[in-house]
């Protein structure tokens, strides 16, 4: 975590502001909530589905904030981003308590590992509803609530949104649902950066690579076992930390990024510059099917054609 004295930013980088972090009860979201406290925010709302997790996280933030001399109120908000009604009610609570929202961090998200052909319709919906529709729900929910809060869209002026996506530039093998959803969020970020600029809103995204976070604990053992090798294969030779992603989010939310709009900041140590095919090599081949591009397979299926084309 970033803290007073160790923060890479001034302690008033978000001075007096109100920050909403979805998925703020764990991992990158919790590190971002702390970075907001350490950046001088007056209020930080942390949202998620599990009340007990949010309460525990709020306690940690309050205790550490007090110990380091910050004056920030923490508000845990139970909210399921998949459901607009839940999002609307959560945002109403934030505005009731703090009277405003200055920064929204769409960090809540996740997926599970599966070959594309085994993703069920329900599983596809769960991941797309969480990552793409959930992000949309929060963005439109905050827009509508702030629009209703003051005439002439005055409460929207200065709003900053940061969407957390993933390293999906070369596809996300075995996470097709998430790759598609995250690409959708990137496009949404570009679209709203243009469309909502007229209201004084800035919207950007952060694309983490492999980040050593609590989120990775939920993956099955073989995937967790492969993670150190995947992280080590990154150009910087390691996975990232929750605080390193949080620092990028705070930068995009800060006035230091006042002319940054519609950007996607990769926080991945350069790993997205590698090819997706290398990532797929970490998965074992299907036991019954030879790889499509293997020489024997090509020879069986296309041997005659390949030979003919070499004439
Ligand atoms: C080589 C590996 C590279 C690793 C790169 C890592 C890059 C990214 C890392 C991260 O993002 S880490 C942090 C994120 N955290 C998580 O991903 C964990 C949270 N994950 C989830 O919450 C789920 O995956 C979810 C689907 C997004 C939501 O789960 P939830 O439990 O709320 O869904 P349900 O509505 O109960 O399930 C619906 C449906 O989805 C299918 N399904 C869900 N989980 C799995 C699973 N583990 N395996 C297979 N299928 C799954 C399933 O069809 C569910 O329906 P039912 O079968 O339960 O009826
Ligand atoms: N760690 C990594 O390597 C990478 C992470 N990311 C992304 O970064 C973000 C944070 O991940 P990380 O901190 O690692 O993982 P975590 O699993 O710790 O964080 C995910 C958070 O999202 C919340 N969440 C999930 N579904 C919902 C929902 N429907 N409504 C509200 N909140 C929800 C969870 O809280 P609760 O369960 O209480 O709802 C949890 O706090 C995610 O979007 C993740 O996919 C992207 C690339 C790499």
TrEMBL record:
Top-rank taxon, per record: Eukaryota
Catalytic activity: (2E)-dodecenoyl-CoA + NADPH + H(+) = dodecanoyl-CoA + NADP(+); (2E)-octenoyl-CoA + NADPH + H(+) = octanoyl-CoA + NADP(+); (2E)-tetradecenoyl-CoA + NADPH + H(+) = tetradecanoyl-CoA + NADP(+); a (2E)-enoyl-CoA + NADPH + H(+) = a 2,3-saturated acyl-CoA + NADP(+)
Keywords: Fatty acid biosynthesis, Fatty acid metabolism, Lipid biosynthesis, Lipid metabolism, NADP, Oxidoreductase, Peroxisome, Phosphoprotein
Keyword Nucleotide-binding: no
Any one of the GO BP annotations: fatty acid biosynthetic process
GO cellular component: peroxisome
Top-rank EC class of the record's enzyme: oxidoreductase
Major localization listed first in the record, in broad terms: other
Gene3D superfamilies in alphabetical order: NAD(P)-binding Rossmann-like Domain (3.40.50.720)
Function: Participates in chain elongation of fatty acids. Catalyzes the reduction of trans-2-enoyl-CoAs of varying chain lengths from 6:1 to 16:1, having maximum activity with 10:1 CoA. Has no 2,4-dienoyl-CoA reductase activity.
Name this protein carries in UniProt: Peroxisomal trans-2-enoyl-CoA reductase
């Amino acid at each position: 975590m970033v803290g007073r004295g160790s923060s890479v930013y001034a302690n008033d980088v978000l001075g007096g502001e109100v920050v909403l972090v979805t998925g703020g009860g764990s991992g990158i979201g919790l590190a971002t909530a702390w970075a907001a406290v350490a950046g001088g925010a007056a209020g930080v709302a942390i949202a998620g589905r599990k009340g007990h997790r949010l309460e525990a996280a709020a306690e940690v933030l309050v205790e550490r904030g007090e110990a380091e001399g910050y004056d920030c109120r923490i508000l845990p908000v139970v909210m399921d981003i998949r459901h607009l009604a839940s999002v609307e009610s959560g945002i109403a609570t934030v505005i009731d308590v703090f009277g405003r929202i200055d920064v929204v961090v769409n960090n809540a998200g996740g997926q599970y590992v599966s070959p594309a052909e085994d993703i069920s319709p329900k599983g596809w919906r769960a991941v797309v509803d969480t990552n793409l529709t959930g992000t949309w729900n929060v963005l439109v929910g905050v827009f509508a609530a702030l629009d209703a809060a003051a005439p002439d869209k005055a409460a929207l002026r200065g709003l900053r949104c940061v969407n957390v996506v993933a390293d999906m530039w070369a596809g996300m093998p075995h996470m097709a649902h998430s790759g598609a959803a995250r690409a959708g969020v990137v496009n949404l970020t570009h679209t709203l950066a243009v469309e909502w600029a007229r209201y004084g809103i800035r919207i950007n995204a952060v694309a983490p690579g492999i980040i050593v976070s609590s989120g990775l604990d939920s993956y099955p053992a073989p995937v967790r076992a492969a993670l150190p090798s995947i992280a080590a294969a990154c150009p910087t030779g390691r996975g990232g930390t929750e605080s390193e992603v949080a620092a990028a989010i705070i930068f995009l939310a800060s006035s230091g990024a006042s002319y940054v709009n519609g950007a996607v900041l990769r926080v991945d140590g350069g790993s997205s510059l590698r090819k997706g095919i290398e990532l797929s090599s970490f998965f074992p081949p299907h036991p019954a099917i030879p790889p499509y591009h293997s020489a024997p397979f090509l020879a069986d299926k296309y041997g005659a054609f390949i030979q003919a084309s070499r004439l």
